[in-house]
Known about the structure:
The structure holds two protein chains of two kinds.
Chain A (H helix, E strand, L loop, with lengths): L11 H5 L5 E4 H9 L6 E3 L13 H5 L5 E5 L32 E4 L4 H6 L2 H15 L3 E5 L2 H5 L4 H8 L6 E5 L10 H15 L10 E5 L6 H13 L3 E5 L5 H5 L6 E4 L2 H15 L12 H15 L2 H28 L7 E7 L1 H13 L2 E8 L7 H11 L3 E4 L4 H11 L3 E4 L12 E4 L15 H15 L4 H9 L7 H4 L7 E5 L1
Helix pairs in contact in A: 2-15, 5-7, 8-11, 9-17, 12-13, 13-17, 14-15
Chain B lengths: L1 H6 L4 H4 L12 H11 L3 E6 L4 H10 L22 H6 L2 H14 L4 E6 L1 H6 L3 H6 L7 E5 L7 H15 L10 E5 L9 H13 L4 E3 L7 H6 L6 E4 L6 H11 L3 E3 L7 H15 L3 H29 L4 E6 L1 H15 L2 E7 L5 H12 L9 E4 L3 H8 L6 E4 L4 H8 L2 E4 L19 H10 L7
Parallel strand pairs in B: 1-2, 2-3, 4-5, 4-6, 6-7, 8-9, 8-11, 9-10, 11-12
Amino acid sequence: MINLNESTCPTREQRANGINSYNGKASQLVKDAKEGKLVNRERIFQQNSGCILNFYLTVRVATIRDAVMIVHAPVGCSAPAALYREVFRRIPVSQGRPEKLDFHWLTTNITEKDAIYGAGDKLKRTIEEAQRRYNPKAIFILTSCTSGIIGEDIEGIVSEVQPNIEATLVPIHCEGIRSRIVQTGYDAFWHGILKYLVKKPKKKQHDLVNVASMLSYTWQDKVEITRLLSKIGLRVNFIPEFATVEQFETLSEAALTAPLCPTYTDYLSKGLEQEYGVPYFLYPSPIGIANTDEWLRTIGRYLGKEEEVEKVIAEEHKEWLPKLEKIREGFEALKKDGKEYSVLGSLGQGRLLTQTPFFHELGISTPVTICQDFDNLILEEVEQLLATVGDFDIVINTFQAAEVAHTARKYNPDMVLSCPFMGSAYKREKGQTRIHALRGDARDWSTQAGYKGAIACGNFLLQATKNRSFQQTMLAKTPDTYHSWWYEQPDPHYYHKKVEV
Amino acid sequence: MSQVENKLSETAIDLYPEVSESPRYTCALGGAYGATLATYGNVPILHSGAGCGMANAHGLTFASGLNTGGAQGTTSTPCSCLVEEHVIFGGEQKLKDLVKSSIEIMKGDLFTVISGCVPALIGDDVDAVIQEFQDRATILHVNAPGFSGTSYNGYEAYLDAVIDQLLTEVPVEKNLVNILGIVPNQHVFWKGDLENIKNLLEKIGIKVNTIFLNFNGVESLKKIPAAELNLVFSPWVGIKAAEKLKEKFGTPYEIISHVPVGPKDSSALLRKIGDVLGLSKDLVHDVINEEERKAYRYTEYLSEAFMISVPHAYYGVVADSRTAIELVRYGSNELGWNPEIVIVTDNPPEEYREAIIKGLTENLEGVVNPKVIFEIDSHKIRQELNKHTLQVLLASSLEKYIAHDELDAIHLSIAYPVYDKVIVDKSYAGYRGGIALFEDLSATFAGPL
């Protein structure tokens, strides 16, 4: 139950027993979660992992068209958004990128004096300045640790100022200290969207499907999803990057909310159903051939397009299955002593569900997986996954580079797939490559979603097996970040406290 | 709309000049973090929220030429990742655990705890925590809450902590100088600049402690009091440290105000330092002759491409004060360009602004003196640029598309943030620096006739 009378969402810890500390069998993890026994533990040793503001709400909210983002924080909290005038500009207009992308954001630049005397008046005037300067349709106000600790009354300021401001004000309560689980930031963002921006539907658009996507899915993924759904006569409302404020306002008019990442979309999907009766599903995502089939079929079932979907699937299979077979042959040839090529993926919860079956589709094994965090929103789906691919080990941490390095050494898989900004995880004797590209990458090569993405991604992985000189050379020629004892002891969670938090 | 507008305060930003669209620096914690990472063997330990390091990985190291920050950067940096319960019960125990474990697991010669906004607001006694470990490792504390200042101030806070907590008197070495004022990351060419200045000064027999970059970073720090002279390559950043070093160790300092770009300023620097340190005039003279001869011989190779493409250009510079001075001087005094507008983006303290204006407007060849504006707000900077006709814009990558779409000017990213290329040890400092700058600039437009 989503309560839009509240100023913000509950944390993932409160809402779904979210944790980011676990090391064991996936089957046990699900069992523990079902029995309500998921336990989070404090780390003695911990590394930079991102907070709910800076994972990466600043970067994402700054890319909403005809809106302005105000970050109510000291100057550093919004520094990642300094790429706002360039991000996405590399995507050619011929590929469908809006020609005029002119984003704006402001920092209130909270100072020492503000920390003592408060910064409420400053925020009010910053909102006014945003209205006057940019004449936006919406103004997002993002909070920070400092605004939270000094007790800024954001809701009070918003209700006081809103009558004089034409733009819709959307406060997002994303103080970094609120939660250990970065996904709380997504929920906080969707809460603001649902509470302040989504309007009652003027008309239902029976051919419109909402798709919320992560920065880790690229422009070509958007192109591919649009292509597939247009074949069955559907249009896509992609949010939040590049989206106009109107696209948020009309989320309520869509016929369905479909996932790219289930736990990213969860709060929004449930909110849209609860408030406006927009149905949703959370699994599967269109990653890999079989899951893309199922994703399309599920959409078909919701929207009465079963026959059209079967026709599309048959057509697409004709084109893509022979290519999949070639990739499978490639990985078959890499088998050693009858054992499949193995990968360790550093995944979010969404990718845990989507990439793992995809690897198996390619003929790759996943003896162990690293997952950023875990909560009870996806238990049935993980059970389904276990039934399909069998049990595997799972290490849960949010960007803990030492734990990742330890896990990679311990399991020593043929390939480690790392997120961007993964410390020194790329230095290996065996293979290593990126798990995904980022949003602004418009090359066909970097596609991940749909049929085209399955083949591009499969080919990419095969390509990554051909040469390891960069990874090996850097391993040989540069010192490791950690002392050797770290790798010699068996537990990646050596530094987890035994007590629950 | 107009009715609503009338109700709005006219003085919103005048009251709070620090409110701005995308200012060109990050916070004090970021500056201290960047300086710590730049000192090889110094392991940063962030006592802060979990996002401070990531915000600065993206907003500082990645923003300064898509850099990672090295083996202790990005996700490798220890951080106490404070959340609500620490705000309520205090973060000292968490820090204690983190310092202890960081010493155990991380390779390093020195550890630097950088405390951010949260511990400052909740009143953690960080020094007391660190005190417990002083027999196990050398640990510095930089108190750098984000709200206390900019990344430039964070760099100064780092040097301040080093001077107060690490440095002791050592014998002075003849002809040894320290380089101050070049701020890691915030000055996007910091690595190459330090290398080039070192190489330049070594040509006349000066020994150079760049402080950062050297493999033995801790020794480089400890060697700071051994210098005969401190050189501040900035009109304001680093002067505080130089003054403190003078007070504490008696080291004199010279404010150079900018890094020399191209032969004229390189020669001027060598002459000046040669005079101050009493080096042989003949040696300095010979080095200058040889270097200038080579640099201008090489400049001949680019002269035709230059004269066809961007001769006599009206140009703008949007950069921190140091970088602005060096590029105004290079463009005006070596390329024969006309400096039209300079926007200084590093928010220098009032007392240094007059000297900065002098550096930007005096001793320029040609008849054009630039309009100088101090501005941190990227919106106002854009509006100002649109008032000018420019052929070349040397700025940050924030101006990349504005230069192209709105100004019809050739653009090169030379100041933070730089998201449009990787910068490893590139630099425009020294005799060859101007040539390097033109090589990069030409990559955006030069081609067949």
